[in-house]
Amino acid sequence: MMGRACLRALVLTGVVLHPASARAQSATDLATTTRGPATQLTPQPGSAGLPTPIDPASCSKSDGDWAERALIRSQVPQLGLPPMPHPDDNPPTAAKIELGRKLFFDRRLSINKTMSCAMCHVPEQAFTTWKLQSAVGVEGRSVKRNSPTLLNVGFLNPLFHDGRDETLETQFIAPLVARNEMANPSAGWVVSFLNRDSTYHARFQGAFGAPASLDRMGQALAAYQRSLLAGNAPFDRWHYGGEADALSPAQKRGFELFTGKADCAGCHPIGDDHALFTDQAFHDTGYGFLREEMRQNPPETTRVQLAPGVFVDVDFDRVASVSSKREADLGRYEITEDPADRWKFRTPGLRNVAMTGPYMHDGGFNTLREVLDFYNEGGPGHPEQSPLVYPLGLSDAELGDLEAFLESLTSPNLNCLAAEARSQPPDNH
């Protein structure tokens, strides 16, 4: 049996942050776990189905400055993507993008100089975090939601799973001051630090001709994030580029299911000349309700990851005794306080979805197949669930084709985006 001291050590090191926050256990596992003694430590194949890490070194760098390439990318549409909308008061420049990248990686912008934006949006993990269901802030503090990918984030409006913000220029403020994220006492505290730092003083003068301020900080971060564009996937080359052999037969069958029998395109639409694969709307798919039912009726044991591929089952009450309490999550209702918005969450885009797990707003599903199984079964079917979610009756073969189609949405330039992100060492001192 695992002792309390060992459990507490796991909590402090971020292995166990609150019950089921580590990716080792999915929502499916939680719903089917039963009480019993801890199992023997057993190696598991792979690591919860994680993709192969994106290798920045595999990018064949072009001549010229990375920030200039990023600027051009943000201004020239890629196959399958619409033009990037840039605000009139924040046109992109290479200097803004370079400054935004520096801010994005700087751990000194957190209260104890340990957290940066990039620690929840890891370039080698498609600008999300593969190994945790929900994000982790300073000192191992738990965040109740999964870190969404920042790939193509400039097209999204609104932002966050619950739509609490509408622009990248202001989105960064919430995590900057949230006590369970970067935990700064105020946004002004961070701006004061930037103006005291000689390097940042020069960078802000170069990008804006003015000292650091909250709005200029947001403009620089937004310019960098709008350069994280990833289109030109095999699907795009087939559907928009006319390359007949860009997709496999299984992927083509999956496309027919996606737009037909499975009706995925009802919430993840495909346009005539581009596709973001999101309607940018909020839906109650039944998943939020299901997770709340599970929160109120926790399992008797929970699986804890001790090392890569090594797991142990532990009494849930023992883990809960040294973990932060898992919060309820009512989705869009927490923003509007409209009862009709309970358990509604923004439809995520599906581009690069094979590289951006775990899935759902709290990372409760580890694999695409788990997500597909959930929708194939029609969700839990609670009374307020959207009528767009219903049993689909797909066979295993059809689910396999649908998954193959989703894998065709992976762009070829993720390694080069990671290489640009790592073009300079982060400011961790």
TrEMBL record:
<feature type="region of interest" description="Disordered">
    <location>
        <begin position="23"/>
        <end position="62"/>
    </location>
</feature>
<keyword id="KW-0575">Peroxidase</keyword>
<keyword id="KW-0813">Transport</keyword>
<keyword id="KW-0408">Iron</keyword>
<comment type="pathway">
    <text>One-carbon metabolism; methylamine degradation.</text>
</comment>
<keyword id="KW-0249">Electron transport</keyword>
<dbReference type="InterPro" id="IPR004852">
    <property type="entry name" value="Di-haem_cyt_c_peroxidsae"/>
</dbReference>
<protein>
    <recommendedName>
        <fullName>Methylamine utilization protein MauG</fullName>
    </recommendedName>
</protein>
<dbReference type="InterPro" id="IPR036909">
    <property type="entry name" value="Cyt_c-like_dom_sf"/>
</dbReference>
<dbReference type="GO" id="GO:0046872">
    <property type="term" value="F:metal ion binding"/>
</dbReference>
<comment type="function">
    <text>Involved in methylamine metabolism. Essential for the maturation of the beta subunit of MADH, presumably via a step in the biosynthesis of tryptophan tryptophylquinone (TTQ), the cofactor of MADH.</text>
</comment>
<dbReference type="Pfam" id="PF03150">
    <property type="entry name" value="CCP_MauG"/>
</dbReference>
<keyword id="KW-0560">Oxidoreductase</keyword>
<dbReference type="GO" id="GO:0009055">
    <property type="term" value="F:electron transfer activity"/>
</dbReference>
<dbReference type="GO" id="GO:0020037">
    <property type="term" value="F:heme binding"/>
</dbReference>
<feature type="domain" description="Cytochrome c">
    <location>
        <begin position="249"/>
        <end position="410"/>
    </location>
</feature>
<dbReference type="GO" id="GO:0042597">
    <property type="term" value="C:periplasmic space"/>
</dbReference>
<keyword id="KW-0574">Periplasm</keyword>
<dbReference type="InterPro" id="IPR051395">
    <property type="entry name" value="Cytochrome_c_Peroxidase/MauG"/>
</dbReference>
<feature type="compositionally biased region" description="Polar residues">
    <location>
        <begin position="23"/>
        <end position="45"/>
    </location>
</feature>
<keyword id="KW-0479">Metal-binding</keyword>
<keyword id="KW-0732">Signal</keyword>
<dbReference type="InterPro" id="IPR009056">
    <property type="entry name" value="Cyt_c-like_dom"/>
</dbReference>
<keyword id="KW-0349">Heme</keyword>
<dbReference type="GO" id="GO:0004130">
    <property type="term" value="F:cytochrome-c peroxidase activity"/>
</dbReference>
<feature type="signal peptide">
    <location>
        <begin position="1"/>
        <end position="24"/>
    </location>
</feature>
